[in-house]
Amino acid sequence: MLNTFEAKTDEQGNILVPSGIKLPEGCRILITVLDESPKHQVNDEALLSEKSLAADWDNPDEDEAWKSLNQD
After folding, report:
1. Can you name the residues that pair with 9 across neighbouring β-strands?
2. How many domains does the chain have?
3. In this structure, is residue 52 part of a structural domain?
4. In a domain, 2, yes or no
5. CA geometry: angle 51, 69, 64, nearest 5 deg
6. C-alpha angle 7/35/24, rounded to 5°?
């Protein structure tokens, strides 16, 4: 079974393993170095489809169809 954990490095480049991770003796570990800082990623597909979805969703018929789910 594969498990993925996020870790960081210190000033000397040593890997800082998050606390609470217990690794079995002799396990194999793959290390992938990411070349960018973690940041909030935007779902590009959602942004690209926003205009076309708005044309379908922003109309009175859709409002009527979904009003039973409105919690306001």
Report:
1. 15
2. 1
3. yes
4. no
5. 65
6. 25
DSSP letter string over 3-60? -----EE-TT--EEPPTT----TT--------SS---PPP-HHHHHHHHHHHHHHSSH
Of 15 and 38, more confident: 15
Note whether residue 1 is domain-resident: no
Q: Could you tell me the residue range of the domain that residue 13 belongs to?
A: 8-33+43-69
In tens, the pLDDT along 2-23 reads 888 889 899 999 999 888 888 8
Take residue 70 and report the two structure tokens written for it: 């409105």
Question: For residues 4 and 40, what is the distance between their CA atoms, to the nearest angstrom?
Answer: 19
Q: C-alpha distances in angstroms, 14 versus 23, 47, 66?
A: 17, 38, 53
Q: For residue 22, is it within any domain?
A: yes
Q: How many CB atoms lie within 10 A of CB 7?
A: 10
In this predicted structure, the answer to whether residue 62 has a pLDDT above a threshold of 70 is yes
